[in-house]
Amino acid sequence: MEKINELYNKVKNLEDVLSEYNSSKNKIKRLETDIKTAEAFLKGGDKQRIASKIKDCEKELRKVESEIKKIDLCSKDCHSLSDIKMMFEFVEEENIIANKATQYLESLIYPIYVSSKQVEESFKPMSFKENFVPQKGDFKVLKINLEINDFFSLLKSREELLLNCLNLFKKTLRLELECAIPSKICCYADEKYLFLLLLTPTTEESAEEHFFKDLTFVGIDYLNQLENVIDIFNEIFKANLCKLLLKCEITCEDIEDTNLFLSQTEYFITNIEEWKLDCAMKEIITLSKKERKWETVDWLEEKSLTKNLIGQHFNQSTFYFSLETLNNTKLLPKEISETLFRILLCIKILLSCKSKRTEKAEKIVERALSKMMSHNVQGHLLHHFIFFADLTVLVRLFSSSPIAENLTNIREEEFFTISRISTELTKSLNDSLLLLKVYFKEKHYDFMLFVDKFVPEKSKMAFEINFFNLLYANICDYILCIKYIDNEKVADLSRLIQYVLDLSSQVPNGCIEQFKRLESFSFIFRSPIGEIAENVHTLQVTYKDLSILLGLLFKPSKEIKMILEVFDTPN
Known about the structure:
By secondary structure, the chain is mainly α. It has five domains: 1-43; 45-75; 81-261, no CATH class; 271-411, no CATH class; 424-571, Tetracycline Repressor, domain 2 (Orthogonal Bundle). The protein is built from 22 helices and seven strands. The protein has a five-stranded antiparallel sheet. The protein has a two-stranded antiparallel sheet with strand order 6-7. Keywords: Coiled coil. Residues 4-74 form a coiled coil.
């Protein structure tokens, strides 16, 4: 029985083994099938498809890497020429390229400010400029990266970007080199930068200490090595030369030195005397056509007008006008418009020119000034005073000129315009006494402030006399227009009239025609009817004035009627 059980178990186990065998056999078959399928897949066109797929993946990978590089470049500033080259290689968007290029350009040129002590220690300009005189103050040093020349070479294949960057560079350089010329610049260099030391002190202050290492003086001619931008430097230097000439802040040597630097260029001046005349004439014509500005100059204190221009004697025989007529300061205002001051500087240049075209220049000047001064002035009282001051100077300057009569007539009209505007009453006499006192005080103060600045010493009294004469007449006319007044206001007006009369205490009252009239108004306002009757023949008023005032201040009566009859009867 045990053997039977044992055999049964063996048979049972054999079935399990057989089942596993069959299962494994099936797996092998499936694997063999898969292998055959794989082998078939690897044969023929399938290999080509895989290779193509690999190439596509590699291409996509390079594209992604390029995008990553592009994003990286766009997110950072360009600090070197190699950065710009990579930008051109990986970035296609023109606006991004332009933005990065201009940012990089702006980093290539910038000013720094150094103290006079550091100038002497680090730059030693006195060793290279014979006429350099050490001055106190701070100085500008323009620091230019030497990559700038290669940068513009790189841009030559991109015409629009090149033009935009050149314009930006010109704008920056024009600002930083304002009024600088070669004779006023010391040029230094190290391995990476060019340093332009401007020898004229600046109003800017040095905020920090700068360190300069291994600087070499290279001279202004070094700029010629910057072949891609030297033309911009030349253009700016010639423009600055003209600016300094028009300010009368230049010497013969400065002009000659700058012109020597510009030789062999289109900016070279072939005839300096004719160039000076052209600069002055163009400036006068431009100023005469511009909209009038109202900035003023204390012109008699400006040395640029009083000292000789570039050391030459004036040849005034060919001109109607002469600056010598401006020597008597009592006949001249303290201040004039900045525009006229600049024109006077131009006239000074014309007087120093040795040119055959001076007669033609004189006629152009006269025509331009005559047209400019014929324009009506609108606006603030200050503008009329400035215009009057300008006319005063021109009348003196062109006293022998054909335009003198016209200028004199315009000046006379302007005098009456000033008198009219300055004495117009813009406050009601019904306002409080305190407010009216302040108003008239300020009116007189402001007027005399303008008179002091813009009217010659000899004419100031005439202006003040006319001011009070018209002011008093206007006050009288305003009073005569009052329809009703109470006792309190009568007292206030009486005090106000006396206050306004006292404002003219510095002027002989006999010179003010309306003084006695307003004084009579004051007497009538503060006096009872009986006192008015007793002094009726001393009143300096018209019959109409007296009639209106008595009707305003008193009730109708026989006494008033009698006063008017007596007043109308010759004494």
